[in-house]
Each structure stands twice: as C-alpha cells, then as structure tokens.
Specification:
227 residues, mainly alpha, two-stranded parallel sheet, 9 helices, 61% helix, elongated
C-alpha cells in the first residue's frame, strides 16, 4: 500500500511541475478575439476622425477648430497603442506624427499654399482667401509664399477627382499606407486561423491535468492491491 501511495505522490509531483498550458491553446478563437479588439480600436480611431469632420464642418469659430484637430489626431495613437505589435500601426504613427508636427507648428491648423488651392479648386476660389487666415470649413490656414512652418508637411498634395481635386498631406499618405498594410496583416492572420486545424484536445489536456492533480492515493493505476 505504501509503494502505491509513493507512486501516486510522484505522479502528482510531476503533474504539478508541468508547465501551464497557454490560454490561447485552450481558446481556439483566441486569435479571432484579438482581431475583434483590433477592429474595436480602429472604430474608436475612426470615431475621432468623425469628430474632426463634424468640427470642421459645423464649428463657427476658428479657435474651436485649432483646439480640436490636434487633440483628436493625438488621440488616435492612444486608441491604437494596444495593437502596436502590428507594423501597419507604426507606419500610421509616423504619418500621424508628421500631421501633428505641422499643425502644432502652425497654431493647430494645417498649412497650405495658394498654389495648392489653385491646383485643386482653380484661381477663382483661391482668390477668395486671405493669406494668413483660416480657410473656413477646412483644417487649413493659408500661408504666404516663403512663410509658414513645416509647410512641406502640410496639405501640399493634390489628388485629382474629375475637374477638381482634394488636398492631402504627406502624413495623410503615410497613414493610408499604414492602414492598407494593417488590413493586409489582418487578412493574412485571418487566413492562417481559418486554415489551421482547431486543437479541440487543448481543453481536454487541461481537464486531464487537473484530474491527475486531485486524484487520491489508491486511484486506478496508483496503488497496488494488498495481498
């Protein structure tokens, strides 16, 4: 009887020394849950962008726009920070950082030159704005040629759309590239998860390990039958 008791104790000791099984193995949907959290963070970031759009469209005072734009842009990296392990997130951080630098250096607004407005909207519309003033219902401040700070990081790119176009900054282009890279990472991760066979035995291994830990001396395979 004592020999069986010692054998049971040795098995219990080996079971207690076994490394814990990671939670990701016991939850086959762990990777999918991580993607869901990423999408939630992305939704928060898009919500901050929506606040920017509403502020630009409806704010009656320039000071409100100058205050809200840098704050909301700075909030996007905070929303995405838990997912910084993705390369696309860091690319987006670079673009957002460039935009924040340009805005802060110009009092909370993005610098733009008259030549860029002419290219995007034409001479007639460009002539409506005074140099050094906020362009109403936009995130831009019109700077004089040769003036302004970090103007190359401002709205200096024109994306043609029909006979006109819309303006963007180099930081916007980097953010778009990071977003595409992030979507590619998410699609690749989803493909790996869907093709990987689900390990349904993980939970069974955990249950068996717990049973071995609590199995009393003299259980099956443990104690010898007294003669």
């Amino acid at each position: 009887m004592r020999r069986g008791h010692f054998a049971a104790r040795r098995r219990t000791s080996r079971a207690s020394l076994a490394p814990p099984i990671p939670e990701s193995e016991t939850r086959p949907g762990g990777a999918i849950e991580g993607d869901r959290k990423l999408f939630i963070s992305a939704a928060l970031a898009l919500g901050l962008v929506a606040i920017q759009v509403v502020t630009i469209t409806f704010a009656p005072w320039e000071l409100v726009v100058r205050a809200v734009l840098p704050l909301t842009i700075a909030g996007v990296p905070l929303a995405l920070w838990p997912h910084r392990r993705h390369l696309g997130i860091w690319v987006m951080f670079v673009g957002l950082g460039a935009n924040i630098l340009a805005m802060v250096a110009n009092g909370g607004l993005m610098p733009i030159e008259r030549a860029t407005i002419v290219q995007a909207a034409g001479e007639e519309k460009a002539a409506r704005y005074d140099a050094g003033s906020w362009i109403a219902h936009s995130k831009d401040v019109l700077v004089k040629p040769g003036q302004g700070v970090l103007v190359p990081l401002g709205d200096s790119l024109v994306v043609p759309i029909g006979s006109n176009g819309f303006v963007a900054s180099p930081g916007d282009a980097v953010v778009a590239a990071g977003l595409l890279l992030l979507l590619g990472e998410a699609a690749y991760g989803w493909l790996l998860v869907t093709r990987r066979p689900v390990d349904t035995s993980a939970a069974e291994r955990v249950l068996a390990l717990r049973i071995r830990r609590v199995r009393p001396p003299g259980a099956q395979g443990g104690a010898s039958t007294p003669q």
